[in-house]
Design a protein that fits this description.
Mean pLDDT of chain A: 83
Shape of chain B: elongated
CATH superfamily of the largest domain in chain B: P-loop containing nucleotide triphosphate hydrolases
Number of domains of chain A: 1
Structural class of chain B: alpha/beta
Radius of gyration of chain A: 14 Å
Number of strands of chain A: 6
Helix content of chain A: 10-25%
CATH architecture of the largest domain in chain B: 3-Layer(aba) Sandwich
Largest sheet of chain A: 6 strands, mixed
Largest sheet of chain B: 5 strands, parallel
Oligomer: heterodimer
Radius of gyration of chain B: 34 Å
Strand content of chain A: 25-35%
Low-confidence stretches of chain A: 102-111
Distance between the termini of chain B: 93 Å
Chain lengths: 111, 587
């Protein structure tokens, strides 16, 4: 419920990044709730504020609003796990499936 | 000036080195980078490390910061205090001009003066080690962000080593990596050390780990940047000082471009630090030169625009063919008579009058030809989409130019050009259109855009096109192939496709999509007459009678079977005319 969201999205992101700097991995709770992206590839392009940003493009599942299997571009990546198991974007935590094979088609922007 | 400030910051960092040998290494790296040849042994230590030799080197330095650094290195606590004071005073004078934060360096210099006067004893005879006992102020800017400032990999490495040794002395995790010849081995060692740091569980150890990972970034391996850039961007957002932040953002931009592969495949590989320094060095301002007297009033020039402003395109770096475009005001093709263009096209496309109106709605008499990027779509082949683009250009007058790019043959990102480091460096398609036509608003035409290869392994047409289709990104587009910034925002973009389904929505959204309708049988007489006229003008058939009713009746159902393809209609008419000839001969 909204009332329980004590931290803004931005504050949550800040807390998460600080924990990754301390070498922590996302909690088990966060991992079970996370969206997943398969057949993914990183994309570096101009962001809305003018500078470059990295996003991920791939097939999405377990996302709160996007249908399973739909190919989507995530919001800006703020941390990419060095073992490529997960990534934290501005909006949410993502579990990373297999990296891209040959196909890539972008179909929508994640909100 | 930026340059002066950077040198002063470099000197401050040198003064803050934890040991004399670390400081020496730091200064040697910078001295060599400045082009001065030092007499070094095989292990890169100095053959003659005596104070006299260092003073000699100091004298030979043009850069005051470097000279001061060598004089500081020449100091020993046993030297006369007057000498120590003199050198330290020189350093303090330089530091006092610095705009950034040099309090730590100044504190150390005060300490050295105190050692010289005998008020303090030097630790093991090493000025630098003595001052290492001082408490460190909490870090305002993360180490990894500060790494962006370094101009050479060697420099960055020695600086980071010094910081690491100082900070991790208590941790007992073993020593940080040493430089290796083998890049791959180096990367592995660094990655291993970074993991060790991350596992220490403090935010400053994570910061240090990221800084080490930056040393493993290699423009030849663009993926090596992927782990480092996202957190760097996030951390840089938090840096308070605006002026410094702007400079750091400039640097970070270069790192992003390297991550996109801009400097991969270079003939002489160079570190990202060197690339960043090279790319962000500004032009010299002509300060102090009096302005020219005002020129006499000239009549206002024909509408045009400078596509390649000189200040973002160094002449020496430009290929010959591009040099005379520099600072040149290129003309626009103007629309003389929009109504005439519209009428002619409506006649040739009687089944698509509404679409022609949409296509020509942005044309204004006397104004430069402007148009939103337009995508002509029809599921059928042979609907005359490509031909329409050609006719549109022809009707706008002789100066209008169409550069055609075959989307179906595209399997990579060549549309946006190839970087300069490559043997086949070339500019983007819109830039080429401008160069070949010498106008500011030519047409860049991508035919069969939906048939382009979808893999992004070597880049991809659809992503490559995006920056050109938006004015904000095309107005100052950095051409990697010719190392210049161009105003490509006036280029007209046309494309054709059978279907928009496969196209990414990001691409689709930038286009105005016009669906070309199929003609119907009702349009057959008009279209047939047009095709006859075309055939006549092509020279082959000049005296043909218009098609008779029965001929049209024969063509009609066949054309319908061919789904009203214009191309097929032309062939059917040609066949009909040939049949006429045969009959005529017989008779």
């Amino acid at each position: 419920m909204r009332g329980e969201a004590l931290m803004t999205l931005k504050e949550e992101l800040g807390t998460d990044i600080e924990s990754y700097l301390r070498g922590e991995q996302p909690s088990e709770d966060a991992t079970t709730k996370a969206a997943q992206i398969d057949d993914w590839a990183p994309l570096i392009s101009r962001g809305l504020r003018g500078g470059y940003v990295m996003t991920l493009v791939g097939k999405v599942s377990n996302h709160p609003t996007v249908a399973d299997g739909k190919v989507t571009e995530t919001s800006e990546v703020c941390w990419l796990d060095r073992e490529r198991r997960w990534a934290r974007t501005r909006s949410r935590l993502w579990l990373l499936g297999e990296p891209e094979g040959s196909e890539i088609a972008v179909d929508g922007l994640e909100l | 000036m930026e340059e002066v400030e950077r040198r002063l910051q470099w000197l401050a960092a040198m003064i803050c080195m934890p040991t004399w040998s670390a400081a020496l290494w730091y200064v040697v790296a910078r001295t060599e980078a400045s082009g001065f040849e030092l007499d070094l042994q095989a292990d890169r230590s100095m053959r003659d490390a005596s104070p006299d030799a260092m003073r000699r080197i100091a004298k030979a330095m043009n850069d005051p910061a470097l000279a001061c650094a060598w004089r500081l290195l020449a100091l020993r606590p046993t030297h006369p205090s007057t000498e120590i004071d003199a050198v330290v005073a020189g350093a303090r004078a330089l530091m006092s001009v610095a705009e950034g934060d040099v309090t730590h360096a100044l504190a150390r210099l005060r300490l050295w003066s105190a050692v010289g006067r005998g008020e303090r004893t030097a630790d093991l005879g090493d000025f630098f080690r003595t001052a290492g006992d001082e408490k460190q102020a909490p870090r305002a800017v993360p180490l990894c962000i500060e790494m962006l400032e370094h101009d050479r990999w060697d420099e960055a490495f020695s600086w980071l080593t010094a910081q690491t040794r100082r900070l991790t002395a208590e941790l007992k995790i073993g020593d940080c990596p040493t430089p290796e010849r083998d890049r791959k081995k180096q990367r592995t060692l660094i990655e291993r050390y970074a993991e060790l740091l991350f596992s220490q569980g403090q935010d400053w150890t994570g910061d240090l780990a990221l800084a080490w990972l930056m040393l493993a970034c290699d423009p030849e391996v663009p993926e090596s940047f992927n782990f480092v850039l996202p957190p760097l961007r996030w951390l840089l957002d938090r840096v308070p000082a605006p002026r410094r932040k702007a400079h750091l953002l400039e640097r970070l931009e270069i790192w992003w471009r390297a991550a996109r592969g801009e400097w991969a495949g270079a003939i002489e590989p160079v570190s990202i630090f060197r690339v960043a320094e090279r790319e962000t060095t500004g032009d010299f301002d002509d300060e102090g030169i009096p302005p020219d007297p005002a020129p006499p009033r000239k009549p206002s020039p024909a509408p045009g625009v400078v596509v390649m402003p000189g200040k973002s395109a160094e002449e020496r770096g430009l290929p010959l063919a591009w040099r005379d475009l520099r600072d040149e005001r290129l003309p626009f093709v103007l629309c003389d008579d929009a109504a005439r263009v519209r009428k002619a096209l409506r006649e040739e496309y009687p089944h698509a009058n509404r679409e022609i109106d949409i296509l020509t709605q942005d044309l204004r008499d006397g104004q430069p030809v402007r148009m939103r990027p337009t995508l002509l779509v029809s599921p059928e082949a042979g609907m005359g989409k490509s031909r329409l683009v050609g006719r549109f250009a022809e009707l706008l007058g002789g100066d209008m130019y169409v550069y055609r790019f075959d989307g179906a043959a595209s399997r990579d990102g060549a549309y946006s050009g190839f970087p300069k480091g490559w043997s086949s460096a070339q500019p983007s398609v819109p830039a080429r259109a401008i160069m070949m036509s010498r106008i500011a608003n030519p047409i860049a035409f991508v035919d069969e855009i939906d048939r382009a290869g979808e893999s992004t392994y070597n880049g991809n047409l659809w992503s490559a096109m995006l920056p050109f289709l938006e004015v904000t990104t095309s107005r100052r587009y950095r051409e990697v192939g010719i190392d210049a910034e161009l105003d490509l925002s006036h280029v007209l973009h046309f494309s054709t496709a059978n279907s928009v389904e496969k196209l990414p929505s990001q691409l689709r959204d930038r286009f105005r999509v016009i669906r070309m309708p199929s003609p119907t049988l009702a349009h057959l007489p008009a279209l047939a007459a047009l095709i006859m006229k075309e055939l006549a003008s092509e020279g082959d058939r000049r005296f043909d009678e218009p098609l008779a009713t029965d001929e049209l009746h024969n063509i009609g159902p066949v054309w319908k079977r061919e789904r009203f393809s214009m191309r097929k209609l032309k062939r059917l008419i040609e066949a009909t005319l040939e049949a006429r000839d045969t009959c005529a001969v017989r008779h």
